[in-house]
Amino acid sequence: MATDRIRIGITGVSGYGGRELLRLCAAHPGFDVVYAGGESSAGRRLCELEPALIGQNLGNLTVAAFDPDHLDGVELLFASLPTGASREPLARVPGNVRVIDVGGDHRFVDGWAYGLTELPGVRPMICGASRVANPGCYPAATLLALAPIIAAGIGDPEGIVVDAKSGVSGAGRGGRSEFGFAETNEDVMPYGLERHSHVPEITEALTRLQHGTVAETVPPGTSRATVAFTPHLIPMTRGIIATCYVRPLRQSSVDELHDVAGRMYANEPFVRVVPPINGRGPRSTWATGSNLCFVGYARNHSTGHIICIGAIDNLGKGAAGQAVQNANLMVGLPEVAGLQALPLAP
Amino acid sequence: MATDRIRIGITGVSGYGGRELLRLCAAHPGFDVVYAGGESSAGRRLCELEPALIGQNLGNLTVAAFDPDHLDGVELLFASLPTGASREPLARVPGNVRVIDVGGDHRFVDGWAYGLTELPGVRPMICGASRVANPGCYPAATLLALAPIIAAGIGDPEGIVVDAKSGVSGAGRGGRSEFGFAETNEDVMPYGLERHSHVPEITEALTRLQHGTVAETVPPGTSRATVAFTPHLIPMTRGIIATCYVRPLRQSSVDELHDVAGRMYANEPFVRVVPPINGRGPRSTWATGSNLCFVGYARNHSTGHIICIGAIDNLGKGAAGQAVQNANLMVGLPEVAGLQALPLAP
Amino acid sequence: MATDRIRIGITGVSGYGGRELLRLCAAHPGFDVVYAGGESSAGRRLCELEPALIGQNLGNLTVAAFDPDHLDGVELLFASLPTGASREPLARVPGNVRVIDVGGDHRFVDGWAYGLTELPGVRPMICGASRVANPGCYPAATLLALAPIIAAGIGDPEGIVVDAKSGVSGAGRGGRSEFGFAETNEDVMPYGLERHSHVPEITEALTRLQHGTVAETVPPGTSRATVAFTPHLIPMTRGIIATCYVRPLRQSSVDELHDVAGRMYANEPFVRVVPPINGRGPRSTWATGSNLCFVGYARNHSTGHIICIGAIDNLGKGAAGQAVQNANLMVGLPEVAGLQALPLAP
Amino acid sequence: MATDRIRIGITGVSGYGGRELLRLCAAHPGFDVVYAGGESSAGRRLCELEPALIGQNLGNLTVAAFDPDHLDGVELLFASLPTGASREPLARVPGNVRVIDVGGDHRFVDGWAYGLTELPGVRPMICGASRVANPGCYPAATLLALAPIIAAGIGDPEGIVVDAKSGVSGAGRGGRSEFGFAETNEDVMPYGLERHSHVPEITEALTRLQHGTVAETVPPGTSRATVAFTPHLIPMTRGIIATCYVRPLRQSSVDELHDVAGRMYANEPFVRVVPPINGRGPRSTWATGSNLCFVGYARNHSTGHIICIGAIDNLGKGAAGQAVQNANLMVGLPEVAGLQALPLAP
Q1: Domains present along chain D, CATH in parentheses
Q2: Distance from CA of residue A248 to its chain's centroid?
Q3: Cβ under 8 Å to D: C residues 247-306
Q4: pLDDT at D1
């Protein structure tokens, strides 16, 4: 019955993450989108932002200038705001409105559950939670690939190299000409060489994983994970590949690596553990448009590094898909509701 | 005078490397292309392969089925054959014909000079040489980035991670549907996870560089470099970025890293040492269509790794451009002849 | 109840059209995929073709070598076979199995309803039909754009220019190296200059539309539509834009063109009539991953041509989406079942 | 001798056209770039805009805020300014400085020669000229394809359809987010539906061509050409295909069309007349990085239209290449100087 459906708000709806939330929520069997917030798009109807909504009821919804005091009837709010811009307004959202911050301001912040669902210790915190911080796109791919190896004590959490490749949608919809087509096409650009905002999230989670859960802080004296994280911008729209290089703490075959991951993710609906086929790892297109994460493992014969590869859609498991998964858990719906479509291929 | 010009042959002319050799040689002030060899394209005229040559003299040259016994008058032969296919035929090329093997069969093979010109010890071997093995595309980007750090004893040659990204032209022109547009577009594919044919070339050069030259084999007891080399196929046509992660043997600032490289490459016409600007490394488009290699250096704050980035055009410094540079040295022309055009941008 | 669900077969499942059918049928509320047929992929399980299906029930389905005599229990078969290859085998499919030929062998062929649903006269023929010929991808975009203008007698069905642009997935998954990434990227290729297999379908439909329905052949003496149809291959994976230039039979404003189309498609769930905004027509990305068709109209000030633009996803409204829409009508399900997801953007 | 070299200025050097001029002039055997003008880039050195120039003499040239009164010693100025911004400043350039306006403000304007060199009547006007207006990118491809057919009286200059496809670099380097990678990738966008600034240039030239020369205005009573010109933005960086549909004034075979064009362009170094091979027209990549224009002709069997296809690099023959060709003629150098490199392929 309609009365059972959750009344959903999305703020930051004209950004790429917000647009993907709209796509997923509009098709979700248990959600009704009743509110859209924005800044530059305030005052426009959704059908002006999204031509597919021309002539549709949802298309007539007018984007409101986001005001946490006027969320008329929203039961769950997805906030897809620029990192740095959400702390103050989200603090003002009434307590009876559940909030998922898709941005970067509340990860590992008190009062907010960290929402990378498949990490040990996370899911129980999300079920029924009121405030959830969605993981970053790079951390989602990186941590899902690394978690089994670190939690099992096979890989060294210190000195990890994470070389990540992302499609350009990860840079957001802002008008920066530096991400113009002619600048970005046919190019690979390494960036964040000095520091990247996602590193503390990755190292905190890896440090906690040594004790088997990310739900708790580590006891004093625990050694901290260190990660050389280097992202690269790649000429594609969607997709992330995180290629992680870990030094082994003990010997293990590729089969064992695969089995360890297979056990951790045995009942996970959104993680696929794949063997290297013809020496190839998971590909980013495998996840396009879905909430899936593909992970694969290999051993390097020259250095002995364990290679852990994670592949996601940065707007799926890296943002909107993960957020809907969290929302399902928060309100008690089946975890996979609205997220079961196969990826788009080709 | 025309009599001073070198008579050039190119075999494998219909492949991507061969086509780029044709482009460079046709515009070269000291070369005349007098011979084109091929297999699938034998019997066709060059203007059928390259529409720009319609109505041009060079366009009337007919591609010959490659036969090393019939190279009528060729003085210098570029061989761009599939790796594995050149040993036997190139052994039959008459001694008075200089040969540059752009393929992979003669790197670090006796009787062949290894032709990554800018590495310590290489240039003197190339000048006047009769047989030169061109470096691989991945090794060219990797070694030019790593050489200053390894040769200076700043970085550990063991346990290096090289995460490389290449455009699809690196896979050659073969008809494999797995590299069809719809398969490759919007995708990143890690491959070579188990082993890659370029690794021995990289580790041999790095091992030798510890002693300051790649011209000589190392004395017994020298520790060997080890490299976790992982290539990724990226949805672009040309370009390679090799991102290399090296553990430091001693402390050094980014400025020192930059200076060490700057000194090694101070007089090199084709290497540009660039500082990280806004935390960004060199971009692959910076080299498109040229023989340039850009190298940049950073330090990772979390793990302490030295990050060395090399950017080239895989068909330029990674193949045809490097080959023409070697040819210039072999025959005594200015090293930069025919290679001075700026990269294509955008 | 499960017993109410339709048992679906898909043959040609490893091609791009077949893969998209799999995606749509797997998420369809009224379909169960029970059969997958193929040729090159026969004997493999679906999870080997589609990594997202690893560990899923559907992933365990083994692809059968297509044999119309052994379709165990299939109630509706989608046939996505190469044009020219389906006449004989589809003739052998038992009469109690409904068939939709997504390929090109049965369009305007006796015994098969022509399945471009929104054209006048089509829908009643599809409801309950046993054999339906899906339209071609180019004709779908072209005819939906042109139909209102031709049916209303505003545009001349003779001398129409249709300049079409298609993504590379339209060329199919075959292993032709001519559609390799490095050949196709950064390129526009006009083709079919002499003739194209889709022309008879377009002219037949337009000729019939003069009489207001495509369900019936035209009376003797009716003038036949003529179309200069020129397709272009564009460096993208999915999408078609058909830009059609029609000479007016009578004066009409852009508003009138828009209204005529708006009335024809007023109740159509999958067609959106959009005005030219800032002089721009509908864009191919607006439809990506969906069964939508966007149409827009303009008048050229210099020549007076009416410009009709159709935008679709060639694998959506141009193939699999249209096929599922037809299937819904054939079996009495809501026409939009399984087709309501918003397009993927960006 | 250096004293014979022409002292070149480029203003608008940070735009795409300006950057391509820099590339061509830097490699030109008779040019010395002594001046670079700009607006946003004023005060920066060229090596900051173009990393390949790091450490090169030319890289030390500082971009000046463009001031036509201070062009110290420039003998020939390429002005690549936004259309609408060049009339006033270029009027102030001293008379002894030759000027080529690559922008759109002086085409068919008194006092300026129209510089599409290969059109009948143009070349003599350019030789020795002081002020030349470079053609637009779309007109260059369109007019070179159409000129032989119109000048020979075979095609009707009224009612021509020109459907053009351009890479995104044609939109310039401006910071508009609408041309961001994620917006533009995987998309075709028709635009200019109501009007496009290039139409008057096309119709004026075609109208004049009826009398066999574009050097003179037409006598009163001459019928004017009309063109339905519709450009499309395509997800590639460089390249234009103009597909032109002309109604025949008299019967002619494809061979005749080809011969007529072949005769007009028999001695042209930059135009290649190609037959349709397997029904395909010239491809945009054939011209990438060069000053070439490929033209091809076909007849449509359904409508009888003559199809004329022009393929260029929008930054080559469509801008910088054409400008250098004009510059060569203006100063008496060989027309092909600095323009003979083969296109980049792949």
Answers
A1: 6-136+318-331 (3.40.50.720), 137-314 (3.30.360.10)
A2: 27
A3: 247, 276, 278-285, 288, 298, 300-305
A4: 40
